[in-house]
Design goal:
By secondary structure, the protein is mainly α. The chain has helices at 3-17, 21-41, 46-62, 73-91, 109-117, 120-131, 135-145, 151-158, 162-182.
Length: 195
């Protein structure tokens, strides 16, 4: 994260903690879609994700005067969402997260960039192969390359060590390389998410 972005985040967060509803709105609007995308890519139903996001923002607003200092708002929100979705999956069997199945999602800006750079057939294969990676490999690849988080941030977010993050990314890439070198066509034509 650049120092400028970090400074902007600190300033916005400080304004939020002082009750500035414009800062709160800016934080909400600039992070909402990334949160929805990440929550859905965890395997949660869209309604569960949206409820979890609302809970997080309500909690932030209600506790704005006692919030800790935050240097990276997006990281703080992603970690909060991950924890909230996991908590919901443990306590509410009706809305339990299915970490194996992939739900539909809205394309992220990163995904749109990839779409413009890769041929449609290659993208379909990539999505198919990523969707079939083990959960931790999918999640670390998504956080690293689609949310642009650092290895240390991913480790903290997922509650694993940095070496495990690196290993998951490396193993995921090896598996993807092997699948692409096999040249097998995906059997399904449905569009898959990147996580």
């Amino acid at each position: 994260m650049s120092h400028t972005k970090e400074n902007i985040d600190r300033l916005l967060w400080k304004q939020l903690t002082k009750g500035d509803d414009r800062a709160f709105s800016q934080i909400y609007e600039s992070n909402y879609q990334n949160l929805v995308t990440y929550g859905v890519k965890m395997g949660a139903e869209i309604s569960v994700v949206k409820d979890a996001i609302q809970d997080i923002y309500i909690n932030i607003w209600n506790k704005r005067g006692s919030l800790p200092q935050v240097n990276n708002i997006r990281f703080y929100l992603l970690k909060s969402l991950r924890n909230r979705v996991i908590r919901l999956s443990e306590t509410d069997k009706k809305n339990q997260v299915n970490l194996v199945n992939q739900a539909d999602h809205t394309s992220s800006p990163e995904e749109l960039l990839i779409l413009s750079e890769l041929k449609q057939e290659q993208l379909l294969k990539l999505r198919f192969y990523i969707q079939h990676l083990p959960l931790h490999q999918r999640e670390t690849i998504h956080l690293r390359f689609f949310q642009n988080l650092k290895i240390a941030e991913i480790a903290e977010l997922m509650g694993i060590n940095k070496q495990s993050v690196s290993n998951n990314i490396h193993r995921g890439f090896l598996a993807l390389r092997d699948k692409f070198s096999e040249g097998k066509q995906p059997k399904h034509t449905r569009k898959f998410g990147l996580f």
